[in-house]
Description:
Structural class: alpha/beta
Amino acid sequence: MWAYESVFYQIYPLGFCGAPFENDGVLEHRIEKVIDWIPHLEKLGINAVYFSPVFESDTHGYNTRDYKKIDVRLGTNEDFVKVVEKLHAAGIKVVLDGVFNHVGRGFYQFQDVLKNRENSPYRDWFHIDFNGNSHYNDGLWYEGWEGNYDLVKLNLRNPQVVDHILDAVKFWIDTFDIDGLRLDVAYCLDHDFVRTLRHACDQYKDEFFLLGEMLHGDYKQLVNPDNMLHSATNYECYKGLYSSFNSMNLFEINHSLLRQFGPEDWTLYRGLHLLSFVDNHDVSRVASILTNEKHLPLIYALCFGMPGIPCVYYGSEWGAKADKSQGDPALRPCFEEPVENELTEWIARLAKAKKESDALNYGSFRSVVLTNRQCIFERKTDNERVMVAINADDQSYHADFDAGCGTAVDLITGANHDFGGGSDLPPYSAAFWKMEK
């Protein structure tokens, strides 16, 4: 599938475009700003953009009002058609946020329930108790997502609700020609609904990609051959990536990678392509988390070298900072224009190496050298073998191991490498060695 050979770029549109937090109902054609950033995406080597919510909502996008209308703060459906066309012309796929677990209080069907109560034809679209009361003093109780009552939970066991969602997805494919969906809080979704969605999407468009947001639990509950999702967010390794550098203990991330993708029979996710990331719209920027800024290029190298689909969050490619304690708006800012520096150039080289390597896209995982501050692991397919090497220390490191060959080429720098007598890793360095047969 195309997604397994891609480098993703996440944009949170409402923040990216500088839209007001509250839906003020004022039409502004802000989404076309994405078009101006396409040359930057091309330089980075991005070939898939994942858009956080773009549809009409109450505030932050995850409280949907209308599944078939681009948020008025971003523009019109015609504007977004133009954006997708321009991205596709640049060879960039488009994945949208599918927020199907819940809707906003401004959702028409929920408003009808508030108005007509038991007489509403939509009363069974939600989980309603007419004998209770809500935080908004509605005179009825309803289930919200994890206690957030601005997010009204949908009844995904109701065929009318499922049909409403499937109709919207088909509309998005027919109207915008999107290439996939990221399912918000996928771990909350009814499994039968996920199977129905997958079956429908397979009919709507070939190789339509379904990615699930999973924070915890067994990813194979949703990512499996049982007609469900193609991928999930790898939050286990997200934590391990930055924590390993901050504690100078690369055993942590290596343990997770072996647990997920290693050669043992008990390995959990070997063969799966999970979404790898160092930050996103819900967590602190990685440049604000790492205690040593010289580890910033290295954490991206590890993210691109490990099994999975790497995803870069807009702004983080040049080292933008923001802490979760500052609130969500700080994590989702508006940048007037992209910045290009040494980090963006480094990420572009990583992206090129990843996309062009069979081993980095599909290879197995084997740990070769591991210390607290250094790691070397092998990615291997029948056609190619790549060694990923990281030295997180401020001192050079000499690694002795059987490379299985005498020479290699570094896919990041293009430099030749001689393994006679082992390998010397410079301070704060990373390499992707393509091994000669």
